[in-house]
Structure formats: structure tokens, C-alpha cells
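Collaborator request, handled under Task 6.
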Amino acid sequence: MRSVFRVILLSFLVVGLTGCANKSQEQVLPEEVYYENARDAMNSGNFSEAERNLDFLETYYPFGRYAEQAQLDLIYARYQNLDLEGARAAADRFLRLNPQSEHADYALYLRGVASYNLDISLAGRYFPVDNSARDPGEQRQAFQDFSTLLNRYPDSEYAADARQRMIAIRNRMANLELQAARYYIKREAYLAANNRARYVFENFSTTPAMEEALIIMAETYQFMGLEEAADDAIQLLAINFPDSEAFTAEMKFQPSLLKRQDRSLLSVVSFGLFGDEED
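C-alpha cells returned to the collaborator:
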């Protein structure tokens, strides 16, 4: 009886597993259906549904007739779903699998745009957040992608927008350096402030931040007694920004940022964080 029972139970298990397998197999749709479903979903703005069908298409037909286009669409669908990391990963995969594709410039562009927006949180979309003060790490990656796009595909239809985004990134990174310089000025760490301003001068000379960088350089050089370097900075400021508010009507440079104070050695080396405390 036990043997008979085991045989019957095994038969039920085999039938059940076979049924599950058949059911799973029946759920796999033709390649064209997944592709059309994905395109219809994207056209209607339902990018979650589009992504789902594109994932199925890649899973069941990784080398099918729609494989390359599906990979491109997946980048876009993930980007529209605000899955920026996923969009970047999809772009990486496309470029790795299709290095000679005629659409490689599009993948590079979208990867750059995903990185460009990656460090802007959802809170920043609804609340006033100073994005110029955020860590620019992802934007450096975006800058690299846009630069690669312009070098490899200078005639790409995405080149003009990539170039504008590169300008915006440079402006933002220059502003970050000025943010740091202003902080050091408040802490009376004038050498550190000078270094930050000089970095802007040496690396971001075409940005609007250049004027303030030269002013900070001139004042900090004066404060440190480096008159020749200060004069050079003032001369550059006069040549490039003759209407700067740092000059009087007679074009005389008027320092206004720094105040000389007697400071202890501890205060100097700690950027003003310690020392010179009032009792």
C-alpha cells in the first residue's frame, strides 16, 4: 500500500510540475509582441510597462531582431522612470555589446544626462536646494561622457546639447571652488582661500566665477604681503572685468573682503577652528 501511495503521489508531482512548466512556457510571448507592447507603452507615457516588456525581450530574445533597439529603448525607459543608475547601467551594457553601433552617440549622451541629473535628489525637485553646493562627483562623470561624445561624434545631433551641459558643469564646479574660498575667508584661512581662487583661475578661466576668483586672489595676496602677485591679479581683473565693483570710478582697487587680525599659530594652522577664542 505504501508503494502504491508513493507511486500515486509521484505521479501527481510530475503532472503538477509539467503543468507549471507548460504554463510558464505558455507565458513567453513572441518577440514582436513584447516589442510592440513596449513601443505602445512608451508612446502612451507608461514607461514602467515599457521597461517590463523590454526586460522580457532581453531575457527571452537577447539576440533577436529587436535586441539592439530594445537595449536603446531600455535606457530611455529607465531614465524616464527616474531610475538614473539603471539608465546608466543600461547605457554601459549597450556600449559594451554594440561598440560600433550607429546609435552609440545616443547611448553616450543618455549616459551623460543620467549622470548629470544623478546627484539632484527628489527633494531638490520640490524644495529650494542650492545644487551648486552639492558634491560634483557625478557631474564629473557626465562631463567625461559629453567630452567623449564630442570627440568621437562631433557631428552628432546631441553634440550641441552636450556642449551646453559641459559649460554648465564647468560653471558649477567653479562655483563650488568659490564656495570653499568664501568658507575659508570666514574662517580667516586666507592661504586656503587663495588656493581655491587660484584653482578657479587656472582651471575655469572662461567661467563667470573668474571675476570673484581674481578679487579673492588679489586681496589674499595683499594680505599675505605678496604685492607683486596681488598687482598681477588686479591687472588681470582690470583687463577682463573693467566694470567690476572692486574698482572705484578712478579704477583703483578697493579691498573689501578681508580684515587683518592678530591670530595665534594654532588658529592659523587649524583654519580658524581653534585658537583665538574669547573668554
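The cover message to the collaborator said: "Residues 177-274 form one domain. The CA atoms of residues 31 and 64 lie 8 Å apart. Please let us know whether this matches your experimental observations."
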